[in-house]
Amino acid sequence: MTPNQYFLFAFAITIVLLVGYPLYMWMEHRSLARRELMARHDRDAGTAT
Amino acid sequence: MNHRRSLVIIYWILTLACLAGTTGMLFAYTPTEVTMGIVQKIFYFHLPVAINSFVACMVVFIASIGYLWQRRMWWDDLAHAAGAVAVLLLTVVLLTGMIWGKSAWGQWWTWTSWRLTFSLVLWLLYVVYLMIRPSIESPSRRAIICAVYGIAAFVDVPIVYFSVKLLPETVHPESISLEPSMQLTLGLWFIPVTLLTLGTIAARYQLNRRRRALLERNREHVVAAPNTGARA
User: Fold this and answer.
1) What sign does the dihedral B138-B141-B146-B149 (CA atoms) show?
2) Are B126 and B90 in contact (CB under 8 A)?
3) Minimal CA–CA distance to B77: which of B119, B139, B23, B154?
4) CA nearest neighbour of B160 among B193, B121, B197, B186
5) Which residues, other chains included, contact B68 with Cβ-Cβ below 8 Å and sequence gap of 6+?
6) Could you tell me the pLDDT band of residue B21, with boundaries at 50, 70 and 90?
């Protein structure tokens, strides 16, 4: 690999991890919101998930 | 709630704008160093991420003390969130450092550098911190054990920081002299990385709180209505 490729490799890893993890958090929040809604429906119906 | 959501969106737009700006500076404005070449530019994000990983470890340390002092579960949720972010940042630090090492020194890793060794130990300590959490079922017991562990693990942070000054070092530089334009780029890179660190800790903390609240609501419901055929 050339020095340029080493630099781009390091930069890509940094951006993917630093931006990817908050994106994963955002998707987890959305998933949890759906589970909260389902749990509320279940409670209203007399069962819990 | 909508006001808070708007603030969160503005925060993340600002963070991404700062990241885009500093990335532009890195490629278009900052001069290439003469001896090391373009690989030296790894330093501009390697150092801010390393410093922010120490910040995340310190949040774990403070939150762990907070939990042992007050025994409130939100301290445990905060420590857990910061621990996850610390592992993420330390992973970036190790990977970017290894890539720099391979290009600049011709080797991915060396055990003769105290800083590299203690950095790997720090990463392992916080990986173990995340691994022991799901292995303890009782929430209060888990919080106590993790708080004690979180305080003990922090001992490695000053060791990593001062190892390059106090112990004989073969490869990792203690400091690098930079010209003003390079110093500006380095200084500005601290802004998006710090915003990303704090924002991610906050997002993970909120997620932990919501998960705990959902679990407790379901448990309360099952306890309150044990004969309704409810499932836990």
Assistant:
1) negative
2) yes
3) B139
4) B121
5) B144, B147, B148, B151
6) very high
Amino acid at B119: S
pLDDT digits (tens, 9 = 90+) for B166-175: 776 666 776 7
How confident is the model over A5-47, as pLDDT tens digits? 999 999 999 999 999 999 999 999 999 889 888 888 887 777 5
Query: What does the buried/exposed string (b/e) look like for B52-63 if buried means 16 or more CB atoms within 10 Å of the residue's CB?
Result: bbbbbbebbbbb
Under an 8 A CB cutoff, do B217 and A6 touch? no
Q: In this structure, are residues B196 and B22 in contact, taking their beta carbons and an 8 Å threshold?
A: no
Nearest to B133 by CA among B119, B145, B123: B145
Interface predicted TM-score (ipTM) of this complex, two decimals: 0.85
A10 interaction partners in chain B (CB closer than 8 Å): 42, 46, 95-96, 99-100
Q: What would the pLDDT profile of B99-158 be if each residue is shown by its tens digit?
A: 999 988 888 988 888 889 999 999 999 999 999 999 998 999 999 999 999 999 999 999
Core vs surface per residue B160-188: b (16+ CB within 10 A) or e:
beebbeeeebeebeeeeebeeebeebbeb
For the entire predicted model, the pTM comes to 0.89
Q: Is A27 on the interface with B (CB under 8 A)?
A: no
Q: Does B210 touch chain A (CB under 8 A)?
A: yes
Interchain contact A12–B (C-beta under 8 A): no
| Token representation of residue B8 | 């969160």
Cα–Cα distance for residue pair A21/A27, rounded to 1 Å: 10
Supply the pLDDT for residue B106.
85
